[in-house]
Structure formats: C-alpha cells, structure tokens
Protein: alpha-1,2-Mannosidase
Amino acid sequence: MNHYQKVAEMYRSHPLSASLRSIRHRPYFRSVLYGCLLIASVYVLYSFVNPTYPVSTYSSFSRADPFSGDLAESYLPVDETPADVWRGRAKSVKLAFLHGYHGYERYAQPHDEIRPLSNDFIDNFNGWGVTMYDSLDTMLLMGLDNEYNRAMPFIEKTVFTLPDGEFAPFFETVIRYLGGLLSAYALRKDDLLLRRADELAEKLDHVFATPSGFPLFGVNPNGNVVGPEIGILAEIASLQMEYTALAKFTGKKRWWDRANTVIKALDKAELNKTGGMFPIRWNLTSAQPFDTHLSVGAQADSTHEYLLKQYLLTAKVDKANLIMYLRATTHIITELLFLSPKRHLLYVTDTTFSTNEHRGRPSHTFEHLSCFLPGLLALGAHTLPLDDLASLGIDLNDLGNESMFGISGEGYKLLAGYNLKSLHMWAAEGLAQTCWLSYADMPTGLGPDEMLMHTAGDDRWGKTVDGFKDGGGYLWMDAIEKWKASGARGAPPGVGDKTPVIYTETERLRGSGRARDYSIRKSGYLLRPETLESLYILWRTTGNNKWRDRGWKIFESIERHTKTPSGYASLRTVEVLPAVKDDDMPSYFFAETLKYLYLMFIDTDPIPLDKWVLNTEAHPLPVIEWSQAEKDTFHIP
Ligand SMILES: *[C@@H]1O[C@H](CO)[C@@H](O)[C@H](O)[C@H]1NC(C)=O
Ligand SMILES: *[C@@H]1O[C@H](CO)[C@@H](O)[C@H](O)[C@H]1NC(C)=O
Ligand SMILES: *[C@@H]1O[C@H](CO)[C@@H](O)[C@H](O)[C@H]1NC(C)=O
Structure:
C-alpha cells in the first residue's frame, strides 16, 4: 500500500493544494515589451480572419417538434433579433476573448493564469501555461490565427516537469492540457500538438499504478505519484474521451487500454446500494464504490457526462456506456430532482444513504456546477432514440431488475412506461430554467456558486403521492397527466418560464426575502461556464431563441460587472452592486465560457453536435469510427 502516500487529509481539505505554487513577479521590462506588442496588435483586432477549419454543412433547425406528441411546445417563437445583430454579438464575444487573452499574454505568459486586478500571475496548474493550452481551440474556432501562432512556440517549448514534491493534478491536467492539445490538433492537424499530447500522456502515465487501473490524484513526471486509496469519482473517471482520441490519433493501443480499463471497471461496479448510479468515493484497489453519496455536482459531474459523451464519441457502438448513462439518468430523474415549494423551481441535489435507509437523504443544495446537467440531458434526448430504446435492444424494465436497491428498481419500471425523450427534455428545460433564474434573480445578472433550496416536506419531482407500492404514481406524472387532460398549452410542472425575483437591499441585508425559494450558500460568480453550456445546447437542440437571448443577457452582465483593464475577474458576490471583484481569471473562461457564448451567437455551427463531442472542458473532439485494423489491434469487439 505504500504507493498511496499519506496526503489524504491535505488533499481532502484542498484538492489543488498539491499543485499550488508560489506567485513570483516577472521582470518589469517584459511588461513594457508586451505593452508594445499589445499596441501593435490593436491594429489586428478588427481584421477578423475567416476560420480556416473545415465548416461542415449546416442544416437549419427543423421547426418540427423537438419533443414528441402533444406535449411539445407546438411552435417556436420567431426570432425578432436580426441576423446581423447576432453576428455583431458574436464579434463582441470575440473582442472579449481578445481583451482577456491579450491581458494574459502581456502580464502572465508563459505562466498559468493572469490575476486580472493586480496584473500578477499565478501558477496553479503545474505552471506549464494552462491558459494557452485551454485557449488554443477557441482561437481556432474564432479564427484568431495571430494569437494561435504566437502561442505555438510556447507550446513547443513547454517542459513537462515539476520540482520534486510537487504533483500535477491528473484530472485537471487531462481535461485542460491534454484535452486542449487534442482538440486543437483535431481542428488544425498540426503534428506538434499531437506530439506534445502523446508526450504529456507519457509523463502522466505513472498515475495508473493502482490495482484497479483508476488513476491516483496526482503525478510528478519524474515518476512519483500521490493520492489516497479512496479516490473521487470525477477525478478517476473523466479521462475516457481524451485517451480514446489520443489512441485514435496516435494509433497507440496503450492509450485505448487506459480508457477501456476505466470503462470496464465502471461497468462492473456494484451499484445495488445506490440505485444504479455512481457514488462519489471509490476504492482504487478494489475498483468498487466506497460510499453512497450521490451527486451530479462537484466531485462527480464529469463522470456522468462522459457516459453519454464516450458513447457519442465512439459513434454509438459502445453499449456499456449507454446503459450506464440510462441507469444514472433514471436514478437522477426519479430520486435527485426536486421542486421548490412556491415557485416550483426544478433543481437537482445530492443525496446520501444511511444504514437501513432505502432512499437517499437530500441536502437540497443546488450547485452552479450542476448546471451542466440540463445540457447533457438535452444532448441525450437529441442524439439517442430514448422514445424507442427497443430499437437498440434495451428494455428499461430489465435494467431495473438487476438487483437494484428497493425503490430505484420501481423507478425504472415506472419510467419504462413513459416517453423518456419527452421526460429528459422536460427535465432539461426545467433545470435550465432554474439555472437561468439564479442569474436573472441577482442584481448583477450573474448566478451564485451554490444555493440552498427551501423545502416543504418531500418534494421530489418524482415523489409518490400514495407510495409506490400501493399504486400511487409519481407526483409529476400525475400532474403531467392532469396537465395533458386539461388541454393546457405550456409546460409540465417545474418546466415553464418564470419571472425573476430581485430582492431589495433591505430584504438582502435582513435575509428576510422568502419569495425566491432559496437562500445563497456561496455567493461568488467564478466566471463558470455550466449555465451557458446548457443554454447553448438547449438553443442548438430546440431552436428556441429564448435560450440564446438569455445567453446574450449573461454576456452583457459579464461585460458590465467583471471586466478589468487586463481581463475579466471572478466576483466575490453576485448580490451587491457595484460588483466586488476577485483577483482571478480561470483558464476555463477562455476554454468554455467564451466558447459557448460565441457558438451560441454565430450563424454557422463549426462543430455540429452530431459530428463533434465536447470534453468536460469544452474541447471539441471529432466522432471516432474505428477501422477494422484498429479494432483488430486494439481488441475492440
Ligand atoms: C448487491 O450485489 C452483491 C453482489 O451481486 C450482493 O452480494 C449484495 O448482497 C447485493 N446487495 C444488495 C443490498 O442487494
Ligand atoms: C479497498 O479495497 C481493498 C481490497 O478489497 C481492501 O483491502 C481495503 O481495505 C479497502 N480500503 C479501504 C480504505 O476500505
Ligand atoms: C423485469 O421485470 C419486468 C416486470 O417488472 C418483467 O416483465 C421482465 O420479464 C423482467 N426481466 C427480467 C430479465 O427478469
């Protein structure tokens, strides 16, 4: 057991502390030099070069019902915003990217991130220049070849080493650095990018020194590894897409083996205590769950995401991932979704089972990080035959039979009787609505990082009225039946549009406001992408302009409240004006937040959802079809 070094406590208290490094000041003359470069580059600002990646044929939205039957929104609102206004908005996002990235180049390159208030820099992700790696594909999509070309010499020169005693956090390094390199390679086919990706994976490979083949928390390229025996779901199982793409691009079986080992371990795990869903903690020796804490937020999110996305990435042939996705979403929909008491806000929370409890106990926290879920559900509803699983030889009843624990098995049987496509789409719409309201309710127009939802008893979206066993139905199923019977037009419970509630300053100070149905746990806005990600996918999959109108409102708030002379800054709180900024601009702002905004506003989709799959850091990877030769070499059935 000695390869599990004793850092569990430190790691638990601060997952990134292993890699946090001191902040050093760079020589002043560099700033002056970059200042001159910046002035020069102002002239380039307005010369927007057309993208050089291959643009696939774009089919406009069918106005046909994205849902099914009579439950659909039967018409789509007409977009009153002219096309050239949308084009102007896309251009504004591109200018925002340039503003922030030029600040990084001027004050922080080749370090990890710029501190946008002090113009200092920070090396918080290995010090290899994470902002550059995370930004490459966004530059290519935006046609910013000058910035891309300026980054390439740095990418070429990065030395993937760390001082003794420091460790690269494997998960973050894979999704940001490896994902960034692979995606830029897919868009630009520059061999240097692939060479560096292959080399990086090589340097990280010691991390797999566990009996299960799940990675440890951290690795030093010198071969030392670090991390507790009990691993965190998102950190041990969010590498499948990157390693699959790396295997495809390099032709190396060993990278596919890394991905496949994780997929197989997940598939074999015993989930009868958690209703078929993966809990957060895992034993890296036995490859089995270690607790019963279920969440789609922090520490869990991207693993659920990669079930669907790995299936899509490998051209929908890998049924194991599909079935795991159906299990996870069935449990989420029946057990983790709740309605708030007054506004009927649909939200997703985390649950924990204690001994002898047949249902998880909800915490009623609702995290901004969970706001990727509506996008994922919409992507699934859009790409999978959820209303005809039989066509794939899948019966939800059977999935629920497999010694699932108590109530969840019932949930499968119940859902099996309904149109899963509509159901997933409603959940997506309702959740996205709440994520959006968490922005619209705030004076800054930006959403808090974590909320605590008010409750009134057991208000699961899928709660029983009279209990399962006595023929009672799920509350929302009943409500939907009634809603259907009434001939109502509009949305099922928890799904329709709602009016924002902005508290007065007195209500905020006294904490007396109740009308919102939630209180705020963590009031910062960390320039996070999840809500925009979901608005983007809902816009793409439904064609309903309301989603991108909201995206534009959020962008306006970002411009108004987070902009600094050298970039954009996280907010300490979204609840007060004028907004109070933090000295922090995470690299995902370039990789994800601005990319989703840009993709939402441009009129030609360069990475259609049926040809590209975005990793959890929004790095697009092309759908991969294995050739017969690859199947033979990699032993893919
Ligand atoms: C879960 O499955 C395992 C192995 O299949 C079995 O030993 C265990 O009793 C099951 N537990 C429950 C609660 O059904
Ligand atoms: C992890 O699993 C192994 C093998 O089953 C077991 O020996 C070990 O005690 C487990 N670790 C913990 C912390 O439970
Ligand atoms: C699963 O349960 C359903 C009814 O709940 C039953 O019709 C079906 O045959 C069962 N399947 C298996 C494989 O046992």
Q: What stands out?
A: DSSP finds 22 helices and 22 strands in the chain. Residues 479 and 485 are 10 Å apart (CA to CA). The pocket of 2-acetamido-2-deoxy-beta-D-glucopyranose (ligand 1) is lined by residues 270, 272-273, 403, 405 (CB under 6 Å).
